[in-house]
Amino acid sequence: MKSDSDRRVLIVDDDPLLREIVASKLIGDGYQVETAGDGIAATAAVTSPEIAAFDLICNDLNMPNLDGIAFLSRLAESGFNGAVIILSGEDDAIRRTAEAYAAESGLNVLGSLSKPFDPTRFDQLLLAARAPTDPAAEAAPAAISPDVLFAEDGGVIPFFQPQICARTGAVVGAEALVRLPLADGTVASPARILPAVDEHKLHWRLFFRMFEASIAELADWQKVGHAPEISVNIEPELLLDVSLPDRLRERAVAARVDPAKIVIEITENAAVSAAPEVLQVIARLRMYGFGISIDDFGMGHSNFERLRRLPFTELKIDRQFVADAPTDPVAAACVASSVGLARAAGVVVVAEGVERKSQLDHVTRAGADRIQGFLISKPLPAEMFRRFLDYPVRALAG
């Protein structure tokens, strides 16, 4: 791991005073700093074989000769693998678009700041730049075989991420998220599991493994007086099988679990583009008592008339809007409109991806019914989640 004194930073800005201010701060923090006054000079700096690779670039947008967005394009083409902070006096919408463009181009964008910049927020971004890189994350993960994924003694299991009532803090539900405990004591995330599922066409097997394990846990929790709702994600293609509602109802009855306690999560795009078979499956699932959640709402190309015809019971606001809402008026408007649509439809609205108190405060004021995210809890193994149910949540004070 590099020390700060080994880290090289390039400041790209046409304002010499700002370059001096930022450079003085970074040098005072122990960084090695170089500066450039426009994109042309910056390009020369990052491509010169005489200069060691930079770990971080602080980049303005509106500059002479070659503007900051064009420089970001050249930076991406060069294969730059350090971090980028956008520091610009342009309005929020332009900075957000530049940030999104850089990220979509493969750059590691830590965030963007307006001028004059907030030193506290700048320090937070620098902490992210200094975070050690996990070598295992850089290497391609070893392939996981189907035998390991679905071993009788082991294999994939659900972890449960709590959902709490925004008004009382009580745990009212959880989303079942796939995990795979490994022999070395670590737990594989979906990033390692799902590629193997895709490669071997195991979506049916994974869904039913997660569904059956989730309702088995729910049955056990009910025996000790807890009855949260459990959400299980489903791939859109599985909704084409018109036998699905009967198969799920049979399993719920066998486990002595009320279907009303089970929510099937589908993505917004899958809901909007639903084929006739999907509409039949969703209608019958609702007729049998299962809940239907529209996941990632706000990120797709919503056809509101189409959504209006679906009997969904829950709407989950996309986590990116939740993350940006406290500081981004457009994201805040998306949160507000999502809550308004849910209210008009008479369904529950869940804010997912809540990681900071400011996000919690915003979505609570906006009228979200339920809160889900790391501020409340990370996904938990079944036994830990059961213990979590015993404590009416403290997280609202977080």
What would a concise description of this structure say?
With 398 residues, the chain is an alpha/beta fold.
Describe this structure in words.
The chain has 2 domains: 130 residues, Rossmann fold, CATH 3.40.50; 252 residues, TIM Barrel, CATH 3.20.20. Helix content is 43%, strand content 20%. It contains 17 helices and 14 strands. The strands form 2 sheets. The chain has an 8-stranded mixed β-barrel, surrounded by 5 helices. Strands 2-1-3-4-5 form a 5-stranded parallel sheet, with helices on both faces. α13 links the parallel β11 and β12. The radius of gyration is 24 Å and the shape is elongated. The C terminus is likely disordered.
List keywords for this structure.
alpha/beta, Rossmann fold, single chain, 398 residues, disordered C terminus, eight-stranded mixed beta barrel
Q: SS-based structural class? A: alpha/beta
Assembly level: single chain
Count every helix, treating DSSP H or I runs of 4 or more residues as helices: 17
Average the pLDDT over all residues and give the rounded result: 85
| Fraction of residues in β-strands | 15-25%
SSE inventory with pairings:
Layout: E1 8-12, H1 16-28, E2 32-36, H2 39-47, E3 56-59, H3 68-77, E4 83-88, H4 92-104, E5 108-114, H5 119-130, H6 135-138, H7 146-149, E6 157-165, E7 171-181, E8 187-188, H8 190-199, H9 203-223, E9 229-233, H10 244-254, E10 262-267, H11 268-272, H12 276-287, E11 291-297, H13 304-308, E12 314-317, H14 319-324, H15 329-345, E13 348-351, H16 357-366, E14 370-372, H17 382-389
Parallel strand pairs: 1-2, 1-3, 3-4, 4-5, 7-9, 9-10, 10-11, 11-12, 12-13, 13-14
Antiparallel strand pairs: 6-7, 6-14, 7-8
Helix pairs in contact: 2-3, 10-12
